[in-house]
Fold:
Amino acid sequence: MVKDDMKPSEANLPLYNSFTFVKGIGIKTEVTLRELGIYCWNDVIKKQRPELFPKQKWYALWNGVNSAMEALDVLDISQLTNLIPKIQHWKMIPNFIDRIAYLDIETTGLSPHYSHITTIAVYDGNEVHDFVRGENLDEFPAFISKFPAITTFYGKAFDIPFIKQEMGIEFNQVHFDVCFLLRRLQIKGGLKNIERTFGISRGALEDLDGYSAVLLWKKYAKTKKIEYLETLLAYNNEDVINLEFLLYKAYNLLIEKERTFTPPLEFPKKEIINPFQANKRVVREILGRRAYF
Structure:
């Protein structure tokens, strides 16, 4: 099937302006194509092969572009991620921007072999969904499977392997890891430091960190007092809410760096509500206890 009805706005997206995902098509060939009037995928599908362009390369390009367009059209994520090299997956961000699950986990420790997941927060761009050990954690696999794309911070190295080890589920989604996208821009550090770099404030949760989350869960598990769990969930939820803004920033900085000449993504104007609030007394207690470790 040949999809030749690409909208004009879609032609402005970096993925549709890229040909280097096709084997045998490098940067120099991409420049040559532009000089010959082939600027986007639609040009490959609709136009004749330029007389000066090699037949074999043109057929490879046509087949590659058509396969990618079909995979996008039917959301065949497996085919799409096989066609597009990992280093270019960030170019698909605008294609999935309204269908991304922003994901973060809290655990009792760093190793999935000796620790376990306590909470998982998922932000869908409109609201936050929380999954808690002993309550509804088993509902997470079915919920996350609804999304064709996920975004994490260092999730490729921590969150996703941890979930796979403990829950035995596979992630077939397109995965945008903000940590590694920002590293390509020489922006390094942990999530909290990067948030401060971009002027993001966590308010009452500002001084909490991953170890604080461990202590919060221990206190909740021991006392069953809801204020410990609610403060933990408030902290976990901030991670995923802030990920959306950081993904937009990373994408816009990457198109600027790569000089793709495509318009930036405009962060939507909306009120984002964290369904849980930190208990100030609990925060003081946890920060006080942390000082002794």
In short: The CA atoms of residues 121 and 130 lie 5 Å apart.
